[in-house]
Amino acid sequence: MTTSPVPELLGQAGLRGRVAELREIHAAAERGPGDRATEVQHAKGKLTARERIELLFDPGSFHEVEQLRRHRATGFGLEAKKPYTDGVVTGWGTVEGRTVFVYAHDFRIFGGALGEAHATKIHKIMDMAISAGAPLVSLNDGAGARIQEGVSALAGYGGIFQRNTRASGVIPQISVMLGPCAGGAAYSPALTDFVFMVRETSQMFITGPDVVKAVTGEEITQNGLGGADVHAETSGVAHFAYDDEETCIAEVRYLLSLLPQNNRENPPLAPTADPADRRSDTLLDLVPVDGNRPYDMAEVIEELVDDGEYLEVHERWARNIICALARLGGEVVGIVANQPKSLAGVLDIEASEKAARFVQLCDAFNIPIVTLLDVPGFLPGVDQEHGGIIRHGAKLLYAYCNATVPRISLILRKAYGGAYIVMDSQSIGADLTYAWPTNEIAVMGAEGAANVIFRRQIAEAEDPEAMRARMVKEYRTELMHPYYAAERGLVDDVIDPAGTREVLIASLAMLRTKHADLPARKHGNPPQ
Questions:
Q1: Packing angle between helix 245-257 and helix 49-56, nearest 10 degrees?
Q2: What angle do CA 305, 342, 446 make, to 5 degrees?
Q3: Mean pLDDT, the chain, integer
Q4: Considering only 213-227, 232-246, 361-375, which range has the smallest mean pLDDT?
Q5: PANTHER family this protein is in (predicted)?
Q6: Which residues are part of the catalytic machinery?
Q7: Looking at 17-31, 154-168, 193-207, 345-359, which range is the least confident one?
Q8: Of 153, 376, 381, 446, which has the most beta carbons under 10 Å away?
């Protein structure tokens, strides 16, 4: 890490000599701090910044920006260490032929810590991504702010956060956590659309284990505090977690193939050999008629979407609801579905937050939303009420009501109470609502309704249990039969489950040119 690049070449005369000098300088910048530093990185189970970039982009498509940038800081020995790139590689390339911007921390240089020049490079590439209208991927592997540069480093983070916010809903932003991310640095990934993590090698936390122990007395490891599994299952900070970097970055490429370049474009269409009119007779046996029997909604989704392929977001957090990106007839859709095999598919605080954010993402990037309902209601309990289920549930309601993309809802079995309304019912703006002949739409289940409505008759009957059974049957027959909502125009059609795929694809084709405007306003004030 010298201040003068290649002294022995500086005296060469003529353009050919200068080109040779230039090539050597670029080669030195690409090599970085040397083989030893690379070996240390590999020993930790981590790739280098440039190896990660090679995995992300189409071969030969990467163009680097400001490769020869160096910091200008002095003091604490910095003046003697001025490596090229200043610890971050920035540029653009293509993923399946479409432009994507990237910045990648190089942990081998200053531990990937952010200084003034480092931050300025990131600011520039973020501005370029916003101007070009192309996705931004950050490959994070840094030790936080460069302490030797003091407040200048902290100001650099502020510039990143401001740009994350400005880019939100304009271009897709993907954060890939491939090393430590502590303190204020963790807020940039939190502001982006998706967070990927790798087990064992990546961690995110505001205060590390040492600080936690000093303040609370709790002892915990870095992975136990902020590892990939913690954030994928408990906190919900990470949308995806993988065992190795290669798989992780391959999935980033797959995600990018499902997203538009920006908010002014539609997601890319993809040809499919899966017939639009393919019948799914398996569904007739997959979903039990008895509303109390669980089943796996993921299997329903597999039957409906092209080739059975979908990418589930937040798969291991709030498992009672599924949020996934898939294709129907080659068109990308966002799927929100209750999961009956987890908490019976109820809506709770975490499920409401998870689905609300996903609905907002789909709406921001012109992705139609298909909602699959089988929901018994909101989860009752003191913890839920005291935890704010009202305002958290309202987030999902607000997200759906505010969404202007094509919206189709399908009621498979039960849809009770407020949860039915919140899950994109026709009354809050769903464009089309379908139901299977197993649907039950009501304020509550027949048993609960009968106990309320016929409380006196049941209490006064000679045989209360027989009276209760008769009243439950009567209520179900009168108000919960499969065609009750359709007769009142709250369901557009009751359909054959086996023909659901064809109905959804035809409906999406019709809605492709949908245009809807929201009232003029600076922005709404969604529930927090």
A1: 40
A2: 95
A3: 91
A4: 213-227
A5: PROPIONYL-COA CARBOXYLASE BETA CHAIN (PTHR43842), PROPIONYL-COA CARBOXYLASE BETA CHAIN, MITOCHONDRIAL (PTHR43842:SF2)
A6: 183-184, 418-419
A7: 17-31
A8: 376
* Amino acid sitting at position 387: G
Q: Are strands 98-105 and 88-95 parallel, antiparallel or unpaired?
A: antiparallel
Cβ density class 383-414: b for 16+ within 10 Å, e for less: ebeeeebeebbbbbbbbbeebebbbbbbbbbb
β-sheet with 194-198: strand ranges across? 63-65, 88-95, 98-105, 136-140, 173-177, 194-198, 240-242
Given a cut of 50, whether residue 2 has pLDDT beyond it is: no
Q: Report the helix count and the strand count for the chain, using DSSP H and E.
A: 21, 17
235, 246, 409, 421 from 492: Cα distances, Å: 39, 46, 10, 16
Distance from C-alpha of 13 to C-alpha of 361, rounded to nearest angstrom: 57
Cα–Cα dist 135/171, whole Å: 5
Angle of the 446-453 helix axis to the 464-479 helix axis, nearest 10: 110
Predicted confidence (pLDDT) at residue 72 exceeds the cutoff of 90? no
Dihedral through CA 294, CA 295, CA 301, CA 307, nearest 10? 180
Tokens of 11: 């005296």
Neighbours of 478 (CB within 10 A): 10
Question: What are the E-state strand segments in 85-124?
Answer: 88-95, 98-105
Task: Give which of 227, 270, 331 is closest to 98, Cα–Cα.
Answer: 270
pLDDT surpasses 70 at 189: yes
d(CA 467, CA 460): 9
Closest CA to 500 of 274, 279, 240: 279
CA distance linking residue 454 with residue 466, whole number of Å: 13
pLDDT in tens, 81-122: 888 888 899 999 999 999 999 999 999 988 888 888 899 999
| Per-residue confidence (pLDDT) for residue 6, from 0 to 100 | 53
User: Half-sphere exposure of residue 26, counting CA atoms within 13 Å on the CB side?
Assistant: 10
Give the separation between CA 500 and CA 507, rounded to whole angstroms.
11
Report the predicted TM-score, pTM, of the whole model to 2 decimal places: 0.91
Query: Which of the pair, 392 or 481, is modelled with greater confidence?
Result: 392
- Cβ-contact 405, 366 below 8 angstroms: yes
Alpha helices in 192-244 (DSSP H): 209-216, 222-226, 228-230
Dist CA 309 CA 328 (whole Å): 10
Q: What is the spatial distance between Cα 395 and Cα 399, in angstroms, rounded to a whole number?
A: 6
Specify the DSSP class assigned to residue 259. S
Q: 324, 314, 315, 332: which is closest to 258 by C-alpha?
A: 332
Structure tokens given for 175: 């954060």
